[in-house]
Amino acid sequence: MANVQPYSRLTDFDIALFLNGKHTRLYEKLGAFEIEHEGTVGTFFAVWAPNAKNVFVTGNFNYWDHYSHPLFPRWDSSGIWEGFIPGVRTGETYKYGIETAGGEYLEKLDPMGLYCEAPPKTASIVWNTYKEWKDTQWQEVRASKNALNAPMSIYEVHLASWMKTLENDYLTYDDLAVKLVNYVQEMGFTHVEFMPVMEYPYDPSWGYQITGYFAPTARFGDPQGFMRLVEAFHQAEIGVILDWVPSHFPGDAHGLYNFDGSSAYEHPDPKRGYHPDWKSYIFDYGKNEVRSFLMSNAFFWCDRYHVDGLRVDAVASMLYLDYSRNDGEWEPNQFGGNHNLEVISFLQDLNSHIYSEFPHIQMIAEESTSFPGVTKPVHMGGLGFGQKWMMGWMNDTLRFFQKDPIYRQHHLNELTFSLIYAFTENFCLPLSHDEVVYGKGSLLNKMPGDDWQKFANLRLLLAEQFTHPGSHLLFMGGEFGQREEWNHTQSLDWHLTEQPAHRGIQETVKALNQLYRTEPAFFSKQFENEGFEWIESNDQGNSVISYIRKGETAKQQVIVILNLTPAPREAYRIGVPLPGVWKTVFNSDKVEFGGSNYPVSGATMTEEINWQGKAFSIAINLPPLSALILKA
């Protein structure tokens, strides 16, 4: 019998919380911790494996001997195995050797491990999350930066392919803390969102098939390296949102699947525990220990890594029992419906707990259906998220912009329909990675027409996104008109930014971010219907739409006019809410954006001509395929 000593960090209260699905800080109790015990330095190990016959720790320290270091099962039938191994220090690789009830021997990573070997290696590494943070200033202003009435312009990034070295290697977390932070700041985004950074074995999953839920991927450096990246964003006054995947996990032999020879983490019924689309496994949300694991994981990134929000992936796949399933492949809930009631209660629990502990973060749901009340508070029967992705806007808008402008007059409703329901939830408008992969083409190449029209259309699309009510998100590459669709194995085509047309898209996004951040009309009421008013939503003859965005005062109002065809409109009359001079504060057709510089007055005086229900109006030239923004 090897030198494993009985020891525990867990109190009776911890066990009670864990077994009731209410433990939100399991990462303080389970996993591997270098400590001093009875004068000896070593590591305390604790793992939940409720159906294991025996659990061992194996690693370099015992030459990967399967059976030399057994852990002790707790006496309280919590399913936790624990023990202290002298001499094992931070930096040591290890796995859990699990002897199943059926006599099989499995080698598993630590579900609560803080660091893993870089793939394709699969062991956990004894580590800590100690750091002296230098982001106090950000923490003091975060409430105002993350509020629903503050600008939120999100740059979505896949760290492995944003930029690479000349040798086609990954940039490290420390490289990114300089290059990526400077770039996001220069472009004027308020937040960055990382596609999953938790450890994942398979590159083509882009991080959405996670094995190490508590470990930032070792591809780019160690956990403290990732902390320095978050800190650098905070020092630049940019918020950090992480994609978080509580919906499913892969079947890799070293991961959570079949963890102790049984379905510890996944639902035992394949109708609820197996995901046909992604060939992955679905968490058992009715199991309290699993709920504690997931809640603790969400808390962990907010607590230890100071992140400012979580974008919860694939919420629709969690909410519906029949998601992607045919008749006979799913079973209704106790009331005969198709909602997963365990998921609803889990998400409500999660959002209630996390907002009470971290009130100034944003929980954002990627939810693609009309499920009601995603962003309603839990006490009003909602799921309690802060925001929800507006997939309907994305689908309709891209479909509209892909049409040849000659046909657009018959489809204006595709562009205006989102305003019918825009204020039923707190919506974030996403042009995400999902729209530029698998043969869908880049944003630029979705646009019709010759090259000039493609670029003009893309500027117009971006202006529509930035001026539509809600917060918004743009996937990397879209901000300079990447021509090729996204490829996760290679860097973005940064050389394009040396070409005037692509640089023009970049300058457009910079200008839109600047306007969005500085004009209260665009953010102070972005989730309220009082912040929006149509001027004209149905001028089919000209294919022009126009609307007012409103701030707290009448003087903060701005007008947006979108000319959706390549035909310029001379002296186009539009009703305005206030008399006086209306100044053009943005024109997507300006030469520095790559436009034609069609003559547009910088300032236009109102006339007392009643138009579109307004007592005053102006006549203004509209350049081809352009967006104009005017301010009184």
From TrEMBL:
Coiled coil: none
Catalyzed reaction equations: Transfers a segment of a (1->4)-alpha-D-glucan chain to a primary hydroxy group in a similar glucan chain
Start and end residues of each Glycosyl hydrolase family 13 catalytic domain: 156-512
Pfam families, alphabetized: Alpha-amylase (PF00128), Alpha-amylase_C (PF02806), CBM_48 (PF02922)
Highest taxon, organism lineage: Bacteria
Signal peptide (from-to): none
Enzyme class: transferase
Keywords assigned: Carbohydrate metabolism, Glycogen biosynthesis, Glycogen metabolism, Glycosyltransferase, Transferase
Pathway: Glycan biosynthesis; glycogen biosynthesis
Active-site residues annotated for this sequence: 313, 366
Xref: SMART domains: Aamy
EC number: 2.4.1.18
Role according to the record: Catalyzes the formation of the alpha-1,6-glucosidic linkages in glycogen by scission of a 1,4-alpha-linked oligosaccharide from growing alpha-1,4-glucan chains and the subsequent attachment of the oligosaccharide to the alpha-1,6 position.
NCBIfam families assigned to the protein according to its UniProt record, in alphabetical order: branching_enzym, PRK05402.1, PRK12313.1
Family statement: Belongs to the glycosyl hydrolase 13 family. GlgB subfamily.
Subunit structure: Monomer.
UniProt-recorded name of the protein: 1,4-alpha-glucan branching enzyme GlgB
Gene: glgB
